[in-house]
Design a protein that fits this description.
Chains C, D: Belongs to the SufE family. Chains C, D: It comes from Maribacter flavus. Chains C, D: This is SufE family protein. Chains C, D: InterPro entries: Fe-S_metab-assoc_dom. Chains C, D: It holds the Pfam family SufE. The complex is a heterotetramer, with two copies of chain A (418 residues) and two copies of chain C (140 residues). Chain A is α/β, with parallel strands linked by helices and 418 residues long. Chain A folds into two domains: 156 residues, Aspartate Aminotransferase, domain 1 (Alpha-Beta Complex), CATH 3.90.1150; 251 residues, Aspartate Aminotransferase, domain 2 (3-Layer(aba) Sandwich), CATH 3.40.640. Chain A is 38% helix and 17% strand. In chain A, the strands form five sheets. Chain A has a seven-stranded mixed beta sheet, with helices on both faces. Chain A has a four-stranded antiparallel beta sheet with strand order 13-14-17-16, with helices on one face. In chain A, α4 runs parallel beside α5. Chain A is globular, with a radius of gyration of 22 Å. Chain C is globular and about 45 Å long. The two termini of chain C are 23 Å apart. Chain C has a single domain, classed as Sufe protein. Chain: A (Alpha-Beta Complex). With 140 residues, chain C is mainly alpha-helical. In chain C, α1 packs across α3 and α3 packs parallel to α6. Classes of the chains: A alpha/beta (418), C mainly alpha (140). Chains in contact: A-B, A-C, A-D, B-C, B-D. The interface between A and B is large, with 93 and 93 residues. The complex binds pyridoxal-5'-phosphate (2 copies).
Chain lengths: 418, 418, 140, 140
Amino acid sequence: MSWLSGIFVYQYIDMLDINKIREDFPILKRKVNDRPLVYLDNAATSQTPKQVIEAIVDYYENYNANIHRGVHTLSQEATDKYEQARIKIQKHFNAAKPYEIIFTSGTTHSINLVANGFAALLEDGDEIIVSAMEHHSNIVPWQMLCERTGTILKVIPMNMEGDLMMEEYEKMLSNKTKVVFCNHVSNALGTINPIDEIIKKAHGVGAAVLIDGAQAASHIVADMQALDVDFYTCSAHKICGPTGVGMLYGKEEWLNKLPPYQGGGEMIAEVTFEKTTYADLPHKFEAGTPNICGGIAFGAALDYMHQIGFKNIAEYEADLLAYATSELLKIEGLKIYGTAQRKTSVISFNIEGVHPYDIGTILDKLGIAVRTGHHCAQPIMDFYKIPGTVRASFSFYNTMAEVDTLVEGVQRARNMLL
Amino acid sequence: MSWLSGIFVYQYIDMLDINKIREDFPILKRKVNDRPLVYLDNAATSQTPKQVIEAIVDYYENYNANIHRGVHTLSQEATDKYEQARIKIQKHFNAAKPYEIIFTSGTTHSINLVANGFAALLEDGDEIIVSAMEHHSNIVPWQMLCERTGTILKVIPMNMEGDLMMEEYEKMLSNKTKVVFCNHVSNALGTINPIDEIIKKAHGVGAAVLIDGAQAASHIVADMQALDVDFYTCSAHKICGPTGVGMLYGKEEWLNKLPPYQGGGEMIAEVTFEKTTYADLPHKFEAGTPNICGGIAFGAALDYMHQIGFKNIAEYEADLLAYATSELLKIEGLKIYGTAQRKTSVISFNIEGVHPYDIGTILDKLGIAVRTGHHCAQPIMDFYKIPGTVRASFSFYNTMAEVDTLVEGVQRARNMLL
Amino acid sequence: MQIKEIQEEIIDEFSMFDDWMQRYEYMIELGKSLPLIEDAYKTDDNIIKGCQSKVWVHAELQDDKLVFTADSDAIITKGIIAILIRAFSNQKPKDIIEADTDFIDKIGLKEHLSPTRANGLVSMIKQLKLYAVAYQTQIK
Amino acid sequence: MQIKEIQEEIIDEFSMFDDWMQRYEYMIELGKSLPLIEDAYKTDDNIIKGCQSKVWVHAELQDDKLVFTADSDAIITKGIIAILIRAFSNQKPKDIIEADTDFIDKIGLKEHLSPTRANGLVSMIKQLKLYAVAYQTQIK
Ligand SMILES: Cc1ncc(COP(=O)(O)O)c(C=O)c1O
Ligand SMILES: Cc1ncc(COP(=O)(O)O)c(C=O)c1O
């Protein structure tokens, strides 16, 4: 249909012109403590290009309206743009149907939606499997589910490098296994998990699989149909999009099986005080006025990323990672946590005898933004018996010069603190 | 503390300069079908002043970062602004504590949070009471609760004017009553409900009260402590704020009683695979990365509204309502649904023999945006035995001239359609 | 007449109008001439989803041709379905399945062509074609 | 010395530095001179909430004065709590309760004063004052 055309302009640039790309990000011109901002907290949230900011402004200045069921032009325009964004997301993730993409307020919301739904499908004694390197958002909702249903939670262990022990995983699987949930990429370690294999093995015993793609989405294009995954989720704010919106992919058959999560407008077909029937997908899971502007800006963010090209991004980020890793390792006493073969551009580290918080504080004074702490992955910290790490996470708009600034900064912090 | 100062500048203007106010709303300059946009769908979503759009742009251009636990400057700035927004909301609603304000993704989310929480507190045979004029968002979550717990749902009936029958309400109350939930203002009728009385009577039998303030918030300042209400909620997108964010007020003691709704980052104190403990208020209910920009812009929207002055707004909107009502009633066969004494500036109507959808379509051709349909309040439509209504809802940035355009438009539609 | 020819005829008729009011008034006229569905067929099963107003459509095979009747509680919707029925009724299922729907655009109803429109024009076309597919198999 | 005087002294000391590095280095030095809490008091109960690093504080009444000891696993945090303890320890509960905390701002640690800061300076002040309130009642 004509209104769909022109959505995807994949324009692969062979070599990234980083300076030009940086022009797209107004915030990168900022000074922090009188120094140029070096933003290396991309795994927490990515920065927002002007193309996305413009999409947001365009929405509020030109066609802000409540969507669906509206007869007037603004409402129709907003609805069209919102549904076009859904289709952009569908194409990006190669989902079979647009209505397999559910807009949520973020990864946490998505996982809760699924975990809550399974409460209706699981029985006492059923088992679910989680990996040892999950974000709290992919642990706590399932623990809450277990409390409600008497389901048993099993944990795939990891080794010191930060790789999952797949033999252990295989041993855990049985016909009692009902759901396996695991992140595509670990936010604290950067490990890219073998989700292909995890999914296949789980399907072998008839279990459903949810993959938390929050950390993967800005680095790797996941193909829903090729992976044959049952659920996949991510947050827009980590992919150059706005805060407050995310997506849940669910296979049609699973989305039909799960009961609705929230009740409200939009998600119903018919309401009387005696009986309410639910609407079709995707509306069944989209109660209330959604983050309309957020959904549209999420689509704009994907457009932007495709314009840069995910292949280019991956190659460039691999270079950043390799360079930063080798430079950081030159610092005495510096230890990197997460040394898996397959990693995204995330480096978690500590310096012997120094608390990560101290390093983060000194780096901030130097204009360098890193994250310190447990990164909402306490079990990983417990595993390594550390209070936390310093995490530097790189994006395609970071430069090699910024890596140098980081390394100098860490060196300087070490000198001050030891 | 010094970082709090300067948040509230109440600058009451005695008479509203509507033309000047309209300059604040870029969208009002738009043409629809070659005619100037006349936006009368404010009850569905309000328009966004440039002050709020600027707050959004400022966020993404200058201090976009993930909040809480971040050591670096951007994260601190974003956290401060976000928490300042919470305090703006607290002051606006006169809540006793800032942590009694929970950020949610909107009214629907807020109500689901509360209804889900009560699932842990109610027993088979307990009763909950709803009004006959609720939005689906304040019906369906409670129906889902009833299904889960065996709680009984009772309905306060209304009369033809669209007033609740308070004697019936009193008769329903007993020591079995555990929750009463009711909107402050009906979105389909405009009725301002006697929530003061509803709350007092409910408290008389020890029941908690949730007031859905989605429609009230842009017209009436509700005082949490004076009302002594247990829960109150609204959505930012109906008060000149952005989409995808809202708030839930809950009395501290109730928020402590309710179990958490979603699991994830931020809402925990300690996570191990064996046991998880929850964080203090408000974090217990704010799992995952919130709509950071949305929360901040919500605060900016309240600042804007206070600058105009809620008293001024209420007076001016009352004038708009009176004028529009008397002019519309001059049209032959036009009937208004919702003729309560106390109403906000919402007019739901039909013309005898004409389907509301047809009127809405013709009005749209004339550049006039109204809503048609059941307004997510099917029980009200069933009560009046109509398929829906045409709803014109006025805001402080609408003009008397726009009322004239509406009336002419409806007249013209009538001539075409009959 | 073939579908293509009828569509040309409709385009011709609409091309005489130079503003939306005339077009809508004509559409409303057409609505009044809609071959009405029998009350017995005004069932929930025959309601087309995705419309804010109710639209019922019934299809019947007469010899090798498909005949549509319909109704709606909104007059503009009735006009729209009337136009569709005029173009598609009394045609072979195969021709209905293969028919283009560009003419909607050409008579100035493009605004109704988005799948998200509340009037459900897209759903109506889809439904007529689905009937054709269903009856197509019946003929063989 | 009175709290006020100690604070002036601290302000004087810090005023000698003209960049943050010197200030932080001095703070780290001060951290090293912190009156350390006994291991027996390093319990979860004595941890101050709202800090990314761990901070333990213990309070003890000696005659009519409150004596604080503390520790932290992060050295900058240790420096901060050391400064606070220098200002507030060995003082009467009443004086601690009434004491100003403006000096934090004046020694260039203003950035740590927001209640949302991960280092929890605000929580630390609050905790010291809470101890003072608790022991105040004990004296009477
Ligand atoms: C009275 C009432 N309650 C609840 C809602 C739901 O609000 P939201 O869609 O923002 O969640 C609305 C909005 O349409 C409303 O008018
Ligand atoms: C792996 C992983 N899962 C889940 C989340 C939670 O995402 P959000 O906070 O956007 O809901 C994050 C983000 O920190 C993450 O890194």
